[in-house]
């Protein structure tokens, strides 16, 4: 594989859409796929139970596809504002027919359809801190009584913990990348090109990220109407929060 040529005139996620499913599990490190897998295991429904799920900021709809495969009676609404990502998601979800509903909209401002479950992965760190309370209130309002929200994202920790864990995480990350290169999944040139492009997009303000802490998010979830919310999983910075609205 040769390094990709990114179109600087496109939005960041539009430019990386075609390689996202293959490269993101490498670029984001071992906690990326581990987190996605654990989110699916946390879904509080039985295999044959009928329920409605909404995935916010779905990207290529990895969580939606996983939920529909695990729960054959479930219906899912997948929401994202990037057309290129949704095109890939549409192909991925075609086998599920009417159980999958793809909608192009800004996950940060869209009205949440009435549902039993809201999922998001690595979306909240694109939401400015001042906008989080409104988003979380809309999520809580959209959930049916007793409904659940599961958020997976990179979350900030204390400086000493972050420094210590960063050293360990870096060691595992490098081994993870070496294994992906050895297997033929990617090349070092391709990885270097992707990181260089991401840095360029950040410098130009086209890929803005915020590092929220789990403590701040849990406080905001409680204020938004969740009566039970907690941290249930963490692998280095990747963290899963689960919250329930009153039954």
In a few lines, what is going on in this structure?
This protein is of the alpha/beta class. Helix content is about 45%, strand content about 20%.
Polypeptide structure, described:
The chain is α/β, with parallel strands linked by helices and 247 residues long. The protein folds into 2 domains: 12-157 and 208-244, Vaccinia Virus protein VP39 (Rossmann fold); 159-203, no CATH class. Helices cover 45% and strands 20% of the residues. The protein has a 7-stranded mixed β-sheet with strand order 3-2-1-4-5-7-6, sandwiched between helices. Strand 2 (75-80), helix 4 (83-93) and strand 3 (100-104) form a beta-alpha-beta unit. It is globular. The model has no long low-confidence stretch (mean pLDDT 92).
List keywords for this structure.
247 residues, alpha/beta, 2 domains, 20% strand, Rossmann fold, seven-stranded mixed sheet
Blueprint (SSEs and pairs):
Blueprint: H1 12-27, H2 30-42, E1 52-56, H3 62-70, E2 75-80, H4 83-93, E3 100-104, E4 115-121, H5 132-142, E5 143-154, H6 159-182, H7 188-203, H8 214-224, E6 228-235, E7 238-244
Parallel strand pairs: 1-2, 1-4, 2-3, 4-5
Antiparallel strand pairs: 5-7, 6-7
Overall SS class: alpha/beta
Q: What is the CATH H-level superfamily of the largest domain? A: Vaccinia Virus protein VP39
- What characterizes the major β-sheet? 7 strands, mixed
Q: What is the fold named in CATH at topology level of the largest domain?
A: Rossmann fold
Amino-to-carboxy terminus distance: 52 Å
Please provide the count of β strands: 7
Q: Topology as H/E string? A: HHEHEHEEHEHHHEE
| Low-pLDDT residue spans | none
């Amino acid at each position: 594989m040769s390094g990709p040529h990114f179109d600087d005139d496109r939005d960041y996620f539009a430019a990386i859409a075609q390689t996202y499913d293959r490269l993101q599990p490498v670029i984001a490190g071992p906690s990326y796929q581990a987190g996605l897998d654990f989110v699916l295991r946390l879904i509080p429904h039985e295999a044959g139970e009928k329920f409605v799920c909404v995935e916010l900021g779905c990207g290529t709809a990895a969580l939606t596809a996983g939920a529909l495969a695990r729960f054959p009676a479930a219906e899912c609404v997948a929401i994202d504002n990037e057309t290129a990502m949704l095109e890939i998601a549409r192909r991925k979800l075609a086998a599920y027919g009417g159980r999958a509903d793809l909608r192009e909209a800004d996950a940060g401002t869209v009205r949440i359809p009435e549902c039993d479950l809201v999922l998001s992965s690595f979306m909240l760190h694109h939401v400015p801190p001042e906008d989080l309370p409104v988003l979380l209130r809309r999520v809580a309002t959209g959930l049916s009584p007793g409904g659940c929200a599961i958020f997976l994202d990179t979350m900030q920790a204390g400086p000493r913990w972050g420094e210590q864990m960063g050293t360990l995480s870096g060691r595992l990350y490098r081994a993870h990348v070496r294994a992906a290169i050895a297997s033929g999944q990617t090349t070092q040139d391709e990885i270097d090109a992707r990181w260089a492009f991401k840095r360029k997009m950040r410098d130009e303000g086209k890929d803005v990220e915020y590092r929220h802490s789990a403590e701040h998010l849990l406080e905001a979830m409680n204020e938004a109407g969740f009566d039970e919310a907690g941290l249930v999983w963490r692998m280095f910075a990747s963290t899963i929060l689960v919250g329930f609205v009153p039954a």
